Structure of Penicillin-binding protein:
Amino acid sequence: MKNRPSAKKKHPKIGLLVVVSVLAAVIVAGGVGIYALGMSWIGDLTEYDVSNTDNLNTSLPSEAWDSTKTVQLAKFQLDNREPVELNQISQYVLDGTVATEDERFYEHGGFDLAGIARALVVNITGSGREGASTITQQFVRNTILSDEMDEISIKRKVREMYLSVKLEEVYSKDEILRMYLNTINYGNATYGIQAASQRYFSKDATDLTLAEAAALVGIPQSPSYNNPLVDGGKNCIERRNLVLDRMLSNGYITQEEHDAAQQAPLEVNETIPTNDGILAYPYFTSYMRQELKEELGMSEAEILKGGFTIVTTLDVTAQEAAEQAARDKAAQANGTAGLDNVFESAMAAVDPETGHIKALVGGRDYSESQVNLATGTGGAGRQSGSSFKTFTLVAAIKAGIDPQTLINCSATAKFPGWSVENINKTEYGTRSIARAFAVSSNTGFARLCLSLGPDAVASTAKEMGIHSDLSSTGSITLGVDAVTPLEMAEAYATLASGGVHHNTTPVLQVYNRDDELVVDNTTTEGERVLEPEVAHAALKVMEGVVQSSEGTGTDAALANGQVVAGKTGTSDDYKDSWFCGVTPQMSVAFWLGDRRDYFGDNSCESIPSSVTVASAFASFMNVVLEGQPAVDFANAANPPYKAYTDAKYGIGGTAGSSGEDTSKDSDKKGKDTDSNSANGTNNGSNSGGTNGSNTPGGPSGGGTDKPDPAPTPDPEPTPDPEPTPDPEPEPTPDPEPTPDPTTPSAASFSLPTIWSRTLQMLAA
């Protein structure tokens, strides 16, 4: 039998080498592929600067304070969050968090391989459910990768691990723990341990008991399920006890402490944060927040998340005085009318030298209505009545018209499509513009406005600080346009500053989260819109409203003798009452009325005519200026006046000249009410506030006349007038009824003479 050829001998080492080589190639290729894949996942993170805390704490509240930084006005935040330092947190919270969330926290370098392996075993064997994310990874997920928080993938885990390692290279373990505890979600839109401690237990995080600390530590695992307000706290207690078990097993607490804490009841003591973050003076504070966006260009997100510190212009003493004066005046009006909380007051007080808003009251109750009557936010302004005559006065002085120029202030006046009357159809005769202003003659100022041109009045008001739309008809001088107290205070402040206009602002300074000053309104740049001589001349006339015996605003006089210049104003049917007044230190506008609309079934009530708003100004300013010496307005020369005559409107001559003042003085004080029919050129009916029926506001317009030192041309008393003959369509120009000032002869007292002169006066 033939031997079979022997088979070729195999070399097992060569085969093994081939297998190993192939496997190695596969592993290397796989490793290269995995590396390439991993790099693609973290490519956008390689240049990420984890040292920039703006990237880490993505949401920090912004705080607002009064001008002295002693009274907090607001905390604006996206979430309820209040960062604290590690030494402001209970040790129980620190230990419980580490024991429960990451017991090897102080040993790993950002991610924990041993923890991952342990979690895999527990989850695969079904012996429980355990997470593998370290505290550092959770912090990364909640801040830097918050947009990927809900994504469950290996990619997200790789990105978390990469950034966690980078974080641990920059920050210490304690710093990471602090940042984690300041950003973690504790349920009910509450973020951070301090906010959670206040939210659920109304105490600081440093004061938490062991049981309370364990309850809070247990919440982040499932904030909507484990927080103390859910299901009577049942889930919270179960989770709390698990935290206590972990603290015991890790040696942080004794058995006795553990048992006592587990037996302790869950005693929740809630503090519910305000929704809008406003803590004090809501009308001012809400307006300030609006201005941050509209004037400073800050976005809502920046305000809620930027961590800014806003120092406002608010003077708390002035604000408290303003609110008290507003409450008292509204109470007086309601009590006099026998009504319940119908009338309310609004006001604004401005520093004339800077435009800083020192006090602002927008209404009776912010919780009832967020419509800010002081600024018009959420609504509109109100008709200002005769307080708008100030702009006609200034426009006249700008045009070179001496306030001593005489003007026809007849009881009534008719113009094409428009008629005007003084309060109670009072006959003021021919008197100086200054005296017409003091008694608030509607007919006199309607004539002056038409002579100047309504556009001149409107442009003057705009230059001085009125921002609302204005009409271009003669009735503009009677305050028919809706304006706000803040606008009026801003415009009047231009006079107190000697003709320099400052835009008003509620913001003094703004600091960013790094305490860097980013906005500084400590000093503001004003714009000269009036010559000092014009402003000074106008102020001297306005002082007569308060100081003159016939002035409509004598109730605005101050206790320390401080000079006050101002103007009362009331709209038709006493729907609105105003006093706008200035001193060198402050410009103030007070409004009183019913905030409801002028028209309709539920229209606003009329203010009792006996209630004066000028006294509210005095109440406020007496507090603000308490202990301060009286100071004068800056002095200036007279403007370069020119002789001015307008026969069409009964204007011409000056008091003390041949065109002597023929006004009569009465013994009783009148009211400043603005009454007009139609509206100058609109041929329409202006109700609810045409400035021809001006009343409350102090001794409002209309006027109390006690004899002036200058002799009156007619010594004999005026007889009761017979019914006034219909006035001519145009007022009689320059009546000049002044008799020869020599001793009257017997013929002067004859009945025909008296009757003739009476008719002359009435026709004027």
Remarks:
- The chain is about 35% helix and 10% strand.
- Confidence is low (pLDDT under 50) at residues 1-10, 664-670, 678-764.
- The domain at 83-263 is CATH 1.10.3810.10 (Penicillin binding protein transpeptidase fold).
- The radius of gyration is 39 Å.
